[in-house]
Amino acid sequence: MTQLVELQNAVPAFAEAGIKLYAISYDEIGALEAFTEHHGITYDLLSDEGSAVIRTFGILNHHVTEEQVPYHGIPFPGTYLVDEHGVVAAKAFHASLAQRESAEGLIDSALGEILLRSEEPTVATADGDDITLSLTYHGGGGVMRGGSLRRLVVRIEMPEGLHVYDHPVPAGMVATTVTLLGPPGLRALPVEAPPTEPLELPGVGELQVWSNQVDFVMPVWATDEIASLVRSERPDSVTVEVEVAYQACDDEACRLPRTERLSVEVPVDRGVGPALARGGMPGTDVTTMDTPKWLGSMVRRGLESTDDPDAAVEYLTQISAAYDRGPLGTAHGASDPQP
Amino acid sequence: MTEFADYVDQFGLVGPLPASDGQRQPLGPDDETGPAVGERLPDFTLRSAQGRDVSFHDDRGQSKAAVVFFRSAVW
Fold it and tell me: CA-to-CA distance for A42 and A40, rounded, in angstroms?
């Protein structure tokens, strides 16, 4: 649901990029109409009740069995981008719900370039008087929120004649690396970098380099660990920090290797995690994510099912433990693989 | 509106689905993700919450388009 609202926020950006936007689910039309009205959605939410189109595409989530009413019929969440001819130009299907593509990510892949936006938190630092490094938190309007990917974009700008290295490099030289230092709970996928150019160095061989301006892109997502922090301490922002190691050379000489730390304050949405603690998303008639209701229901049923006081205490203890683990039954962030 | 079946876990607790449940399971390496890059997207006609029937390729005309499949606007 967060994803749909984020897409709505990005409607002007989609229009500017010449991309028409459609979203499809197995919801009945009435549910989509209610959502559309409540959230002021202006793009098309399409009802595939019965999941015929989802099946035609071959993306029915077959891990959900037919007995699991009403969840049976959902797709694997993902997005197709088609070109002017209706041919798939790119698609994004991610392994985790927390890694759904952001609106900005879709637009970038349609345009084939990374469009940094003025509202996105950014910080820059200079190395000497000719190299600039910057870090930008890209996507979602520059706001940290659970449910979809963001991108940390490290941009190195250097004057004509200088270059930085990709792996591998000979001993004594430093290849460019970007490492996420924090905050805890922000997880990253491997860094994406543009293609390198070969550079022949006498006595060394062929090395791979980047020159002029190069963007290193690290897809990141916020886990429940950050959601917990935000719910308990209610900060306005969190600090995202990366370390960039590199060595700039021209064709004749190398400068000393550098290690720079860049940190940027990123505003957080209070609903940074799944809509767990807030009783679900407004504008929906039914939610299974209403935590107080869920706990109340568990407790009532548990107590009703026994006339043994010891069993009731044991039951309440279990519920308390379950609540500590979080409503999805996982320790904070524990289900997410370490990068 | 959709009626929700109670989900009862191993402790007899009623609530949201556990992380191991199918709808929370990640996309596996063998799971298909539909039309490949380079293929024409299959056409479809669906009712929109904006109150019209959308035939995808006719509706987009000569425009680029993003088609987002999501789980549900309800839960």
Answer: 6
